[in-house]
Write a structure and sequence with these properties.
It is built from eleven helices and 13 strands. By secondary structure, the protein is α/β, with parallel strands linked by helices. It has two domains: 4-181 and 222-245, NAD(P)-binding Rossmann-like Domain (Rossmann fold), CATH 3.40.50.720; 187-219 and 249-288 and 306-321, UDP-galactose 4-epimerase, domain 1, CATH 3.90.25. Helix 2 (42-46) links the parallel strand 2 and strand 3. The N and C termini lie far apart (51 Å). The chain binds NADP nicotinamide-adenine-dinucleotide phosphate (NAP) and ligand F7E. Residues 8-9, 11-15, 32, 34, 59-61, 81-85, 100, 124, 126, 178, 180-181, 187 line the site of NADP nicotinamide-adenine-dinucleotide phosphate.
Protein backbone atom coordinates (compact mmCIF):
# COMPACT_ATOMS: atom_id res chain seq x y z
CA UNK A 1 0.00 0.00 0.00
CA UNK A 2 1.25 3.51 -0.81
CA UNK A 3 2.65 5.43 2.14
CA UNK A 4 0.72 8.51 3.23
CA UNK A 5 2.25 11.69 4.60
CA UNK A 6 0.58 14.65 6.24
CA UNK A 7 2.64 17.81 5.68
CA UNK A 8 1.79 20.81 7.81
CA UNK A 9 3.09 24.09 6.38
CA UNK A 10 2.42 22.80 2.85
CA UNK A 11 2.07 26.34 1.42
CA UNK A 12 5.39 27.63 2.82
CA UNK A 13 8.90 27.10 1.45
CA UNK A 14 9.81 23.59 2.66
CA UNK A 15 6.33 22.04 2.31
CA UNK A 16 6.32 22.19 -1.51
CA UNK A 17 9.89 20.86 -1.85
CA UNK A 18 9.12 18.00 0.53
CA UNK A 19 5.82 17.20 -1.20
CA UNK A 20 7.57 17.08 -4.57
CA UNK A 21 10.26 14.79 -3.16
CA UNK A 22 7.70 12.41 -1.59
CA UNK A 23 5.42 12.42 -4.65
CA UNK A 24 8.40 11.13 -6.64
CA UNK A 25 8.49 8.25 -4.15
CA UNK A 26 4.77 7.55 -4.76
CA UNK A 27 3.49 8.88 -1.44
CA UNK A 28 -0.06 10.11 -1.14
CA UNK A 29 0.25 13.63 0.27
CA UNK A 30 -2.17 15.39 2.58
CA UNK A 31 -1.39 19.08 2.97
CA UNK A 32 -2.71 20.98 5.99
CA UNK A 33 -4.09 24.39 5.11
CA UNK A 34 -5.72 26.84 7.44
CA UNK A 35 -8.80 28.78 6.53
CA UNK A 36 -7.81 31.46 4.02
CA UNK A 37 -9.60 34.49 2.65
CA UNK A 38 -7.56 34.22 -0.55
CA UNK A 39 -5.84 31.01 -1.62
CA UNK A 40 -2.04 31.16 -1.97
CA UNK A 41 -0.81 28.09 -3.82
CA UNK A 42 1.99 30.00 -5.59
CA UNK A 43 4.89 27.97 -4.18
CA UNK A 44 3.24 24.64 -5.07
CA UNK A 45 2.44 26.02 -8.52
CA UNK A 46 6.08 27.10 -8.93
CA UNK A 47 7.08 23.44 -8.43
CA UNK A 48 4.13 22.28 -10.59
CA UNK A 49 2.50 20.08 -7.95
CA UNK A 50 -0.47 22.16 -6.76
CA UNK A 51 -2.96 19.64 -8.20
CA UNK A 52 -1.17 16.60 -6.76
CA UNK A 53 -1.84 17.27 -3.08
CA UNK A 54 -5.00 16.43 -1.07
CA UNK A 55 -5.73 19.55 0.96
CA UNK A 56 -7.14 19.09 4.47
CA UNK A 57 -8.23 21.91 6.75
CA UNK A 58 -7.03 22.65 10.25
CA UNK A 59 -5.01 25.08 12.31
CA UNK A 60 -2.03 24.37 14.54
CA UNK A 61 -3.60 26.56 17.23
CA UNK A 62 -6.85 24.58 17.19
CA UNK A 63 -6.46 21.23 18.93
CA UNK A 64 -9.83 19.75 17.94
CA UNK A 65 -9.18 20.29 14.25
CA UNK A 66 -5.92 18.32 14.49
CA UNK A 67 -7.37 15.54 16.67
CA UNK A 68 -10.17 14.98 14.18
CA UNK A 69 -7.86 15.07 11.23
CA UNK A 70 -5.40 12.49 12.59
CA UNK A 71 -8.29 10.27 13.75
CA UNK A 72 -9.62 10.19 10.19
CA UNK A 73 -6.50 10.00 8.00
CA UNK A 74 -4.00 8.17 10.30
CA UNK A 75 -1.03 8.89 8.03
CA UNK A 76 2.13 6.77 7.88
CA UNK A 77 4.24 9.89 8.52
CA UNK A 78 3.66 13.45 9.68
CA UNK A 79 6.10 16.20 8.76
CA UNK A 80 5.38 19.15 11.02
CA UNK A 81 6.66 22.15 9.09
CA UNK A 82 3.95 24.65 10.07
CA UNK A 83 5.19 27.56 12.16
CA UNK A 84 5.27 31.27 12.67
CA UNK A 85 8.81 31.01 11.36
CA UNK A 86 9.98 34.63 11.10
CA UNK A 87 12.32 35.39 14.01
CA UNK A 88 11.85 39.17 13.80
CA UNK A 89 8.04 38.86 14.03
CA UNK A 90 8.33 36.61 17.07
CA UNK A 91 9.48 39.59 19.18
CA UNK A 92 6.22 41.41 18.38
CA UNK A 93 3.94 38.34 18.33
CA UNK A 94 5.44 36.13 21.00
CA UNK A 95 2.19 34.62 22.19
CA UNK A 96 1.00 33.65 18.71
CA UNK A 97 4.46 32.23 17.98
CA UNK A 98 4.24 30.10 21.12
CA UNK A 99 0.71 28.90 20.45
CA UNK A 100 1.53 27.77 16.91
CA UNK A 101 5.12 26.57 17.33
CA UNK A 102 4.94 25.05 20.83
CA UNK A 103 1.33 24.16 21.63
CA UNK A 104 0.68 23.18 18.00
CA UNK A 105 3.25 20.41 18.42
CA UNK A 106 1.58 19.27 21.64
CA UNK A 107 -1.73 19.06 19.77
CA UNK A 108 -0.24 16.93 16.99
CA UNK A 109 1.64 14.61 19.34
CA UNK A 110 -1.47 14.12 21.49
CA UNK A 111 -3.44 13.28 18.35
CA UNK A 112 -0.83 10.66 17.38
CA UNK A 113 -0.83 9.18 20.89
CA UNK A 114 -4.62 8.96 21.01
CA UNK A 115 -5.53 7.91 17.48
CA UNK A 116 -2.51 6.76 15.46
CA UNK A 117 0.43 5.64 17.63
CA UNK A 118 2.33 4.01 14.75
CA UNK A 119 2.51 7.30 12.80
CA UNK A 120 6.10 8.56 12.55
CA UNK A 121 6.57 12.23 13.43
CA UNK A 122 9.12 14.73 12.10
CA UNK A 123 9.54 18.03 13.96
CA UNK A 124 11.06 21.03 12.16
CA UNK A 125 13.55 22.09 14.80
CA UNK A 126 16.04 24.86 14.18
CA UNK A 127 19.56 26.16 14.69
CA UNK A 128 17.93 29.21 16.34
CA UNK A 129 17.65 27.04 19.49
CA UNK A 130 21.46 27.26 19.87
CA UNK A 131 21.50 31.06 19.77
CA UNK A 132 24.69 32.08 21.55
CA UNK A 133 25.99 28.57 22.24
CA UNK A 134 28.62 26.75 20.22
CA UNK A 135 31.14 23.94 20.59
CA UNK A 136 34.52 25.10 19.20
CA UNK A 137 32.79 27.38 16.68
CA UNK A 138 30.18 24.83 15.54
CA UNK A 139 26.80 23.55 16.72
CA UNK A 140 26.08 19.83 16.82
CA UNK A 141 23.64 17.50 18.62
CA UNK A 142 25.50 17.94 21.92
CA UNK A 143 25.67 21.75 21.91
CA UNK A 144 23.43 23.25 24.64
CA UNK A 145 20.61 25.65 23.78
CA UNK A 146 20.58 29.40 24.46
CA UNK A 147 17.79 30.79 22.25
CA UNK A 148 17.71 34.54 21.61
CA UNK A 149 14.12 35.11 20.48
CA UNK A 150 10.58 34.02 21.31
CA UNK A 151 10.81 31.97 18.10
CA UNK A 152 13.90 30.09 19.30
CA UNK A 153 12.32 29.57 22.73
CA UNK A 154 9.08 28.23 21.22
CA UNK A 155 11.11 25.70 19.22
CA UNK A 156 13.06 24.53 22.29
CA UNK A 157 9.75 23.55 23.93
CA UNK A 158 8.69 21.69 20.77
CA UNK A 159 12.09 19.96 20.54
CA UNK A 160 11.89 18.56 24.07
CA UNK A 161 8.23 17.60 23.70
CA UNK A 162 9.18 15.61 20.61
CA UNK A 163 11.93 13.85 22.57
CA UNK A 164 9.55 13.26 25.48
CA UNK A 165 6.85 11.55 23.41
CA UNK A 166 9.56 9.20 22.11
CA UNK A 167 10.84 8.42 25.61
CA UNK A 168 7.51 8.33 27.46
CA UNK A 169 5.24 6.60 24.94
CA UNK A 170 7.59 4.90 22.46
CA UNK A 171 6.26 6.96 19.54
CA UNK A 172 8.64 7.30 16.56
CA UNK A 173 9.58 10.97 16.69
CA UNK A 174 12.58 12.79 15.19
CA UNK A 175 13.88 16.32 15.41
CA UNK A 176 15.62 17.71 12.35
CA UNK A 177 17.69 20.60 13.69
CA UNK A 178 18.03 22.39 10.40
CA UNK A 179 20.22 25.41 9.74
CA UNK A 180 19.04 28.17 7.38
CA UNK A 181 17.93 26.88 4.00
CA UNK A 182 16.73 29.02 1.14
CA UNK A 183 15.39 28.79 -2.41
CA UNK A 184 13.61 30.81 -5.10
CA UNK A 185 10.37 30.30 -3.11
CA UNK A 186 11.81 31.49 0.22
CA UNK A 187 9.46 33.95 1.95
CA UNK A 188 10.32 37.51 0.84
CA UNK A 189 10.99 38.78 4.38
CA UNK A 190 13.92 36.42 5.02
CA UNK A 191 17.22 38.11 4.32
CA UNK A 192 18.45 36.07 1.31
CA UNK A 193 15.21 36.40 -0.64
CA UNK A 194 14.80 40.02 0.43
CA UNK A 195 18.24 40.66 -1.09
CA UNK A 196 17.70 38.72 -4.35
CA UNK A 197 14.25 40.23 -4.84
CA UNK A 198 15.61 43.78 -4.37
CA UNK A 199 18.64 43.11 -6.59
CA UNK A 200 16.31 41.90 -9.36
CA UNK A 201 14.14 45.02 -8.99
CA UNK A 202 17.22 47.27 -9.07
CA UNK A 203 18.49 45.42 -12.14
CA UNK A 204 15.38 46.16 -14.15
CA UNK A 205 14.84 49.66 -12.79
CA UNK A 206 11.96 49.02 -10.39
CA UNK A 207 13.86 49.94 -7.19
CA UNK A 208 16.74 52.19 -6.19
CA UNK A 209 17.98 50.71 -2.91
CA UNK A 210 17.85 47.95 -0.35
CA UNK A 211 17.35 48.52 3.38
CA UNK A 212 18.98 45.91 5.64
CA UNK A 213 19.84 45.44 9.32
CA UNK A 214 22.93 43.66 10.65
CA UNK A 215 25.28 42.95 7.73
CA UNK A 216 27.81 41.16 9.94
CA UNK A 217 25.51 38.27 11.06
CA UNK A 218 26.76 34.92 9.78
CA UNK A 219 24.59 31.97 8.82
CA UNK A 220 25.12 28.44 7.48
CA UNK A 221 22.97 28.72 4.34
CA UNK A 222 21.94 25.70 2.24
CA UNK A 223 19.35 24.90 -0.42
CA UNK A 224 15.87 23.83 0.77
CA UNK A 225 15.58 21.28 -2.05
CA UNK A 226 18.57 19.40 -0.58
CA UNK A 227 17.36 19.56 3.02
CA UNK A 228 13.96 17.87 2.54
CA UNK A 229 15.78 14.64 1.72
CA UNK A 230 17.28 14.68 5.22
CA UNK A 231 13.74 15.02 6.69
CA UNK A 232 12.60 11.95 4.75
CA UNK A 233 15.69 9.93 5.67
CA UNK A 234 15.14 10.60 9.39
CA UNK A 235 11.76 8.88 9.23
CA UNK A 236 13.18 5.85 7.36
CA UNK A 237 15.51 4.87 10.23
CA UNK A 238 14.80 2.03 12.68
CA UNK A 239 14.09 4.47 15.48
CA UNK A 240 13.45 8.13 16.01
CA UNK A 241 16.46 10.35 16.74
CA UNK A 242 17.69 13.96 16.50
CA UNK A 243 19.98 15.26 13.76
CA UNK A 244 21.74 18.54 12.98
CA UNK A 245 21.57 19.40 9.26
CA UNK A 246 23.67 22.11 7.60
CA UNK A 247 26.57 22.66 5.21
CA UNK A 248 29.37 23.27 7.74
CA UNK A 249 30.24 26.65 6.14
CA UNK A 250 29.01 30.04 7.17
CA UNK A 251 28.93 33.42 5.46
CA UNK A 252 27.91 36.93 6.44
CA UNK A 253 24.86 38.79 5.18
CA UNK A 254 27.34 41.18 3.55
CA UNK A 255 28.92 38.31 1.57
CA UNK A 256 25.47 37.27 0.31
CA UNK A 257 24.77 40.87 -0.75
CA UNK A 258 28.10 41.11 -2.63
CA UNK A 259 27.44 37.85 -4.46
CA UNK A 260 23.86 38.73 -5.38
CA UNK A 261 24.85 42.08 -6.90
CA UNK A 262 27.75 40.39 -8.70
CA UNK A 263 25.53 37.68 -10.22
CA UNK A 264 23.10 40.37 -11.38
CA UNK A 265 25.98 42.21 -13.07
CA UNK A 266 25.53 45.37 -10.92
CA UNK A 267 28.85 46.94 -9.75
CA UNK A 268 29.33 48.93 -6.48
CA UNK A 269 26.71 47.28 -4.22
CA UNK A 270 27.57 49.79 -1.46
CA UNK A 271 25.79 52.50 -3.48
CA UNK A 272 22.46 50.70 -3.13
CA UNK A 273 22.51 49.26 0.41
CA UNK A 274 21.21 51.33 3.33
CA UNK A 275 21.82 50.05 6.87
CA UNK A 276 18.53 50.64 8.66
CA UNK A 277 18.05 50.15 12.43
CA UNK A 278 14.45 49.10 11.72
CA UNK A 279 15.77 45.70 10.63
CA UNK A 280 18.03 45.09 13.65
CA UNK A 281 16.72 42.69 16.30
CA UNK A 282 16.43 43.31 20.06
CA UNK A 283 18.74 40.32 20.59
CA UNK A 284 20.67 38.86 17.68
CA UNK A 285 22.24 35.48 16.96
CA UNK A 286 25.61 36.61 15.62
CA UNK A 287 26.88 33.37 14.09
CA UNK A 288 25.75 29.81 13.34
CA UNK A 289 27.61 26.94 11.70
CA UNK A 290 26.54 23.29 11.62
CA UNK A 291 28.56 20.20 12.34
CA UNK A 292 26.39 17.54 10.69
CA UNK A 293 28.70 14.54 11.01
CA UNK A 294 25.89 12.44 12.55
CA UNK A 295 23.51 13.08 9.62
CA UNK A 296 26.30 12.34 7.14
CA UNK A 297 27.22 9.09 8.90
CA UNK A 298 23.82 7.66 9.86
CA UNK A 299 21.54 9.13 7.19
CA UNK A 300 24.16 9.23 4.43
CA UNK A 301 22.99 12.80 3.76
CA UNK A 302 25.10 15.65 2.43
CA UNK A 303 24.25 18.98 0.76
CA UNK A 304 24.51 19.13 -3.03
CA UNK A 305 24.30 22.91 -3.56
CA UNK A 306 26.99 25.33 -2.36
CA UNK A 307 26.65 28.94 -1.22
CA UNK A 308 27.53 30.49 -4.60
CA UNK A 309 25.19 28.16 -6.51
CA UNK A 310 22.39 29.00 -4.09
CA UNK A 311 22.83 32.77 -4.46
CA UNK A 312 23.04 32.47 -8.26
CA UNK A 313 19.91 30.30 -8.44
CA UNK A 314 17.92 32.79 -6.36
CA UNK A 315 19.11 35.92 -8.20
CA UNK A 316 18.41 34.38 -11.60
CA UNK A 317 14.94 33.19 -10.55
CA UNK A 318 13.97 36.67 -9.28
CA UNK A 319 15.30 38.43 -12.36
CA UNK A 320 13.37 35.99 -14.56
CA UNK A 321 10.19 36.55 -12.52
CA UNK A 322 10.38 40.35 -12.86
CA UNK A 323 11.21 40.15 -16.57
CA UNK A 324 8.07 38.06 -17.18
CA UNK A 325 6.01 40.62 -15.23
CA UNK A 326 7.69 43.56 -17.03
CA UNK A 327 8.46 42.33 -20.55
CA UNK A 328 9.65 45.76 -21.79
CA UNK A 329 12.39 46.06 -19.13
P1 LIG B 1 7.46 29.14 6.04
O1 LIG B 1 7.79 29.35 4.60
O2 LIG B 1 7.30 30.32 6.93
O3 LIG B 1 6.13 28.26 6.08
C1 LIG B 1 5.43 28.05 7.28
C2 LIG B 1 4.08 27.47 6.97
O4 LIG B 1 3.39 27.28 8.23
C3 LIG B 1 3.16 28.34 6.10
O5 LIG B 1 2.66 27.56 5.05
C4 LIG B 1 2.05 28.76 7.04
O6 LIG B 1 0.77 28.81 6.47
C5 LIG B 1 2.04 27.61 8.03
N1 LIG B 1 1.38 28.02 9.29
C6 LIG B 1 1.68 29.09 10.05
N2 LIG B 1 0.83 29.17 11.09
C7 LIG B 1 -0.03 28.12 10.96
C8 LIG B 1 -1.16 27.69 11.71
N3 LIG B 1 -1.57 28.34 12.80
N4 LIG B 1 -1.81 26.57 11.30
C9 LIG B 1 -1.43 25.92 10.17
N5 LIG B 1 -0.38 26.31 9.41
C10 LIG B 1 0.31 27.40 9.80
O7 LIG B 1 8.56 28.19 6.73
P2 LIG B 1 9.66 27.24 6.03
O8 LIG B 1 10.87 28.06 5.72
O9 LIG B 1 9.02 26.43 5.00
O10 LIG B 1 10.09 26.34 7.27
C11 LIG B 1 9.39 25.14 7.56
C12 LIG B 1 9.59 24.80 9.03
O11 LIG B 1 10.97 24.61 9.30
C13 LIG B 1 9.11 25.85 10.01
O12 LIG B 1 8.60 25.17 11.14
C14 LIG B 1 10.36 26.60 10.39
O13 LIG B 1 10.22 27.16 11.68
C15 LIG B 1 11.38 25.48 10.35
N6 LIG B 1 12.74 25.85 10.01
C16 LIG B 1 12.98 26.56 8.88
C17 LIG B 1 14.30 26.82 8.53
C18 LIG B 1 14.63 27.57 7.28
O14 LIG B 1 15.76 28.04 7.16
N7 LIG B 1 13.70 27.67 6.32
C19 LIG B 1 15.36 26.34 9.33
C20 LIG B 1 15.05 25.60 10.46
C21 LIG B 1 13.74 25.34 10.79
P3 LIG B 1 0.28 30.04 5.56
O15 LIG B 1 0.89 29.77 4.21
O16 LIG B 1 -1.21 29.87 5.60
O17 LIG B 1 0.78 31.30 6.18
O1 LIG C 1 17.89 36.46 9.06
C1 LIG C 1 20.09 39.33 9.48
C2 LIG C 1 19.25 38.91 10.66
O2 LIG C 1 15.41 36.45 8.78
C3 LIG C 1 19.21 36.02 8.89
C4 LIG C 1 14.17 31.24 9.66
O3 LIG C 1 13.91 30.36 8.59
O4 LIG C 1 16.46 30.53 9.78
C5 LIG C 1 15.63 31.66 9.62
O5 LIG C 1 15.84 32.59 10.67
C6 LIG C 1 20.18 37.03 9.47
C7 LIG C 1 19.82 37.50 10.88
O6 LIG C 1 16.67 34.28 9.06
C8 LIG C 1 18.14 41.79 7.65
O7 LIG C 1 19.41 39.79 11.76
C9 LIG C 1 20.16 41.62 8.40
O8 LIG C 1 20.99 37.58 11.64
O9 LIG C 1 16.86 35.47 6.97
P1 LIG C 1 16.64 35.71 8.40
P2 LIG C 1 16.90 33.77 10.57
O10 LIG C 1 16.52 34.79 11.55
O11 LIG C 1 18.29 33.23 10.64
C10 LIG C 1 16.27 29.82 11.02
C11 LIG C 1 17.20 28.62 11.01
C12 LIG C 1 14.85 29.49 11.28
O12 LIG C 1 14.55 28.47 11.90
C13 LIG C 1 13.85 30.54 10.97
O13 LIG C 1 12.55 29.98 10.86
O14 LIG C 1 20.13 38.17 8.65
N1 LIG C 1 19.51 40.47 8.73
N2 LIG C 1 19.33 42.44 7.76
C14 LIG C 1 18.26 40.53 8.26
N3 LIG C 1 17.25 39.65 8.31
C15 LIG C 1 16.08 40.00 7.71
N4 LIG C 1 15.06 39.11 7.69
N5 LIG C 1 15.91 41.23 7.12
C16 LIG C 1 16.90 42.17 7.07
O15 LIG C 1 16.73 43.24 6.54
Amino acid sequence: MAKTALITGILGQDGPYLAKFLLEKDYKIYGLVRRYSNPNFGNLEYLKIADKVDYVEGDMADEASLLNLIRVIRPTEIYNLAAQSFVAASFEQARLTTEVNSLGVLHLLNAIKMFSPTTKFYQASTSEMFGLQHTNGYQDEKTPFHPRSPYGISKVYAYWLTVNFREAYGIFTSNGVLFNHESPIRGPQFVTRKITDAVAKIKIGLAKNLHLGNLEAKRDWGFAGDYVEAMYLMLQQEKGDDFVVGTGENHSVKEFVELAFRFAGIPHWEEYVVVDPLFKRPSEVPELRAKSDKARKILGWKPKTNFEELAKMMVEADIKRYKILNPKS
